Structure formats: C-alpha cells, structure tokens
Amino acid sequence: MEKKLVGIVPNIEIVREDGFPSYQRIYSNEDYIEAAIHSGGIPIILPYIQDYPMVKEQIKLVDKVIITGGSDINPLYYGEESEILGGVIIPERDNYDMMVIKACEELKKPILGICRGIQAINVAYGGTLYQHLPNKNEFYIQHNQKSRYDVGIHTVIMKKGTKLQEILGETIVVNSFHHQAVKDVAPGFVVCGKSKDGVIEAIERLGGTTILGVQWHPEKMFLKNKEMESLFNEFINKL
C-alpha cells in the first residue's frame, strides 16, 4: 500500500535568548510525527504562509492533514470579545488554520483536528467555543489535567453510528489539556462524544470529505492505547 503524505500544522514559539531580541520559531511536537510514522504515513510539517494561493499549493502536496493543538483562537472569529481569563492569541496561527481548512475543503483532503484543531474546525465552519470552561458551573470534570500526558483521566461516551464511535468504541478514557471547548456545533457536523459533565469531546462532518475532531491528545497516548492507535491508523490509511 502506498504511504500517505500527512501534512502537520505546526505551532509558534516565542523565543528569547541572551544576545538576541525575541523571535518566532515554527515547530511541531514530536508526538504528532511519531504517530503518523507509526501508522504508516509520511509526516510533513507545513510551514506557515500568510498567502492563500501558496497555502493551497502546500495542501495539494499532501493526502491528509492533522491540525494540532496550540493557543486560543481569537474569539472575534466567532463574534465574541475576548474574556478576562482567555489565553494567548497568535493571529498568524489563526489565519493559517483557517486557510488550511479552506484549502482542504476545496481540494477534498481529509482533516483530523486535535485539541485546538477541533476548535479551529468548528469555528471555520460557523460554530462557537466556550472561552473558559472553569467559568461554567456545569462543567465539573478536570479538563486541564496535572497528570502525565499519556494518562487518561476522564471518560468520553461516544455516539452510536458515528465514524469515531466505530473506530474508538462506545466508551473511552482520554487525557485532557484544554480550557476551551466546542459550544455551538457548526452546521453540517455532529457531536460524536461527550464527557460526563457534558463537554463536547469529538465531532465529525456529516457527508462529504472526512473531517474529524477530538478535544483530547491521542498523539500522547497511542503507544499505550489501542483506541488511539486505531484512530491514527484509520484516519491515515482508510478515511
């Protein structure tokens, strides 16, 4: 079977070193790379470009795209002002994510969104986000864990009949590193999984090219967890 080229959206790090003014570094956590390789894919880190025709040429080169975790999405994208307890916003990352999603739509390239990635997908297609879960009394589960990255700390109940439920099963245990989450689900998408306090943990598109989003970090768990391993295998090789 021919190996799939997997485009991985990187992040931005603000670097400050002695003798240098601060500068920006584009990087990807190694876990995303290793997950793609482990599943038989060939990972390619996609450098940021703030020009849509060039972004579209980037996406033409790959078969699948993983939109990774990262900073908060600017709430102005979904018609809200930034709340006091909101996090860091990086305009270049916001703009690039939106252009990548647009290019994938036009070129019919499947997307897997992870953590920030599920949020970017939801916002790009017209949904909204909770800006800070601890402000909402109904959410009582620890969603920004203090345990090791590969440790699952809460359960997710999956919706029967969805692609993600078929891959992951009816109930899974996930890690959790976020303070924002999907609020209003974008038109054309369905909720595939929720935590027991009601936070949306997984979505997928109804029909069309495959678009999946998960709020946890499967790339931190796949080496010790068969469900997370299956998620990457299915996305890269079959969907």
Walkthrough of the structure:
- GO terms for molecular function: gamma-glutamyl-gamma-aminobutyrate hydrolase activity; glycosyltransferase activity.
- This is Putative glutamine amidotransferase.
- One of its GO terms (cellular component) is cytosol.
- The protein has one domain: Rossmann fold (3-Layer(aba) Sandwich).
- It has helices at 30-38, 52-60, 91-107, 116-124, 163-168, 226-237; strands at 5-9, 11-15, 23-27, 42-45, 64-67, 111-114, 129-130, 154-158, 171-174, 181-182, 189-195, 200-205, 211-214.
- It has 239 residues and is an alpha/beta fold.
- The model has no long low-confidence stretch (mean pLDDT 95).
- Helix 2 crosses helix 3 and helix 3 (91-107) packs across helix 4.
Characterize this entry briefly:
This protein has 239 residues and is an alpha/beta fold. The chain is built from six helices and 13 strands. The chain has one domain: Class I glutamine amidotransferase (GATase) domain (Rossmann fold).
Written as H for each helix and E for each strand, in order along the chain, the element string is EEEHEHEHEHEEHEEEEEH
Spatial gap, N to C terminus: 14 Å
Shape: globular
Strand order of the largest sheet: 4-1-5-6-13-12-11-8-9
- CATH topology call: Rossmann fold
Name the descriptors.
Rossmann fold; 26% helix; glycosyltransferase; alpha/beta; 13 strands; globular
Protein topology:
Elements: E1 5-9, E2 11-15, E3 23-27, H1 30-38, E4 42-45, H2 52-60, E5 64-67, H3 91-107, E6 111-114, H4 116-124, E7 129-130, E8 154-158, H5 163-168, E9 171-174, E10 181-182, E11 189-195, E12 200-205, E13 211-214, H6 226-237
Parallel strand pairs: 1-4, 1-5, 5-6, 6-13
Antiparallel strand pairs: 2-3, 7-10, 8-9, 8-11, 11-12, 12-13
Helix pairs in contact: 2-3, 3-4
